[in-house]
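Note to self: the last two entries modelled the partners one at a time, which told us nothing about the interface. This time every component goes in together.
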Amino acid sequence: MKKIVGIDFEAMNTSINVRVITTVERVKMLKNYLDFLPTWFGEVEAILSRFDTQSELTRINNKAGGTYHVSNILAEVVYLALDASKVTNGIFDSTILGKLEQAGYDRTFQEVIARMEAGLPVLIKENVPKARIGRIAQSNKGDKAIKIDRHTGSLVKLNGISLDLGGIAKGWAVDRIFDQLRGLSEQAEICVNAGGDLRLVNPSEGKPWSIKVENPLEKGEDLLSLRLNHGAVATSNVLKRRWKYEEQWQHHLIDPRTGYPSESTAVAATVVAETAVEAEVWAKTLCILGMEKGFELLGRQANLAALVLSYEGELMINEKMRGVIDAGISAPAFSIHP
Amino acid sequence: MKNKSTLVSLVFATGSVVALVMILGNLESPSPSPSTTYKSVSPAGPANAGVAPAAEAEVVSQGDSYEYDFEDDEEDDEDDKDDKDDKDDNKHDNKDDNKHNGKSKNYGNNNQSLPSTSNSTTTTTPSASDSTQIQPNPKQSTTQAS
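The predicted structure of the combined assembly is written out below.
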């Protein structure tokens, strides 16, 4: 007889859902661990949230250029963000916080929407200049604007550089919890899901996990299902977090090449990778770059399965994704990127 | 054949009633597990000094862990024909999983001890939950932008 132990709660402005299928003997230990997670997420938010004015990240963001000693957690996540910037040719860029705030995402998304619905002006921060009309180039590339030594916690930043670690922090948290759970119960089936960024394993390679991919163009509908025995999945889209600014829709995926919300052909992208961080990074990168350029860049990453959905509902996948899609459940027509 | 179908339907209906009674029983007399700090293994390693994190972290919604029995449908269904009927029904139910139709057969033979994960997510855990995260099939999850 096996048991399912799990926990569901809200953190990082999203839903956290952890599920473990394990033996009876390990239930108590795993439940103790799971019960600690909400507290742990709170502690992580106190370090990494840009919406918390007292968080370590906010305090670093508000500091002038210089060298600072930061916590292990902040150092680790900044390191992952900078590494992601390198492998995506700078498309995944955590230093675009200023541009994101200029576009109107300068507080929690719930507050942004409430402000929009109340008809209040988007930009309230006095120190944020009004977003300019037209396209400008990002003046600072992430790898030059900030450096981190994750072993010593030494962070060097240029003046005016501020970080948004939202997406990658979520992926990092999923990976961290997943690794800990694997350590506690190596033979357990595990699924850790933080707002759609998830990582799972089925050590017996028996009945795989079924992962539904939400269709952003049809509310409440699924695009397709994936079948996985191990790995991570993340989805990014431009419709989930969007708001109006000066009568134009804005969204949270800033294209670092322009400094504005991306205007690619992609409305959503889903990536299957080894880790949640990797999946999150590439899902966002594909959304920003769009189908053709996205898959072109992704082509070097042989271990990644990916799909990109266009505004018109066109679905393109790579060869590796074809082996992951659940053929037993109807899926929309798709093309395969050569 | 017809008699057998009727019998199977009766068994399922009885099982559903038993499951419903158990769920309602749980609702009326919740036994929340105390939240325990697990000290020997923590997701967090020790944080460096330097810019210290805020002393009090805000947790938006505190959930408690839950547990219930699990049996893999595929293993159970190999032995006898009645269980094969079960498996067929499960296939049908799986198609409707994301519609939250309240059918509990996906859980195998132990559905009477399960918290409800279908129509009311509030019975799954004491915490508020995003319904898209809780699927009737325990080995099912959803990826979406957040």
